[in-house]
Amino acid sequence: MNMRTVIGLIGLLFCISTVNAQSDTVFFSTELSLKVSALDYIKAKSDLKRLINQYPVNIKEQNESEQTSTVTFTTDEKTFYILKDSLSALGEILLQNLNTSNQKITMDELAMEIRFLTQKLQHYNDFLQTLDPKSEAYLSVWTQKMLIESDLFEKNKALQTDLKKNQPFLFAFTLVQEILPARKQRLTFVNMPGLEYAYFLVENPKLGLTSGAYQGGSLKYLFTQGKSYLGAGIFKSIEPIRNDSTTFSDLFVVNFGQDFFSRYLGQGGRKYLNLYSGYTLGYMLATGSTSKLNVFYISPSIGIEWFKSRHILVDTKGAYLIPFQENKNLRGLMISASFNFVF
């Protein structure tokens, strides 16, 4: 038996004795793949870095782009489950895949393969003793013996690697920018009723026809997250009308509107301060004590979403109402604030 075989046998005995000495331990390997989308991606990315720096982790790989951050790390069991809960809370879970395997089974299989290869190597060494070193048969058997020694080395190396694992908890985390339907090609419908308050300042009020200013409220129903909406409301004159039966004191409106976001300003993807522009097409019934006017109008607008989540939307906007009749005396600036919620 040559020196290499002796060393292989000693390594085998050491590995097997180590496995047997720890036979009461179950070597579990746990891997978690977690993907989360966050509406406020910048804040979530900052929280991710804080959490990774706060706990004892061994980072294997880390990448970051404008809309995606990935990190793969190993850690101990306690930290693994703490970070599992903390990182899941950064946004909406898109993917969560947890796999647990018993590494002891793998090590037992490796030890069995090592025993088999060692015995096989011994047989080849014994057979080589019976052959002429200068014969072709000797060269063929020697070549096979070298392959067995190489395979035996790799099996021993793999077993040693498994035994040295201190942190068998692997975490692959991906954080992505949440893409709201404003960015999507497919139309997505929602059910978000709400209320809107508006102040309408008439640019050129006419005595006996229009008041200088109106205020009122309306129902505003968002039916896509794009966003498209329907509205219906009433405005009352805020100026006293005495002995004037022709001035419009009430404005009843029904409208349809759409808002649009610029891709250069985040395309509506932020949780706060999304700037948008839009338009409203509507019908207005203006009435006084003895007067009435049916008029259609268009109203271009610009606004800001102060806060937006999957369940709540708060925004304000300024618009310029342009009627198709009595244009000079009924057009004007309209300022409004609305609150919508998922129902």
Q: What count of helical segments does DSSP give?
A: 6
Taking all Cα atoms into account, the compactness measure Rg is 37 Å
User: What's the helical proportion of residues?
Assistant: 25-40%
- Give the tally of β-strands: 14
Structural class: alpha+beta
Intertermini distance? 81 Å
Mean pLDDT: 83
| Weakly predicted, low-confidence segments | 1-26, 181-185
The gross shape turns out to be rod-shaped
Spatial order of the strands forming the largest sheet: 7-8-9-10-11-12-13-14
- Written as H for each helix and E for each strand, in order along the chain, the element string is HEHEEHEHHEEEEEEEEEHE
Task: Please write out the topology.
Layout: H1 3-21, E1 28-38, H2 41-54, E2 57-64, E3 68-75, H3 77-88, E4 92-102, H4 103-128, H5 136-163, E5 169-177, E6 189-192, E7 194-202, E8 213-224, E9 228-237, E10 250-261, E11 272-287, E12 292-308, E13 312-323, H6 327-330, E14 332-341
Parallel strand pairs: 1-5
Antiparallel strand pairs: 1-4, 2-3, 3-5, 6-8, 7-8, 7-14, 8-9, 9-10, 10-11, 11-12, 12-13, 13-14
Helix pairs in contact: 1-4, 1-5, 4-5
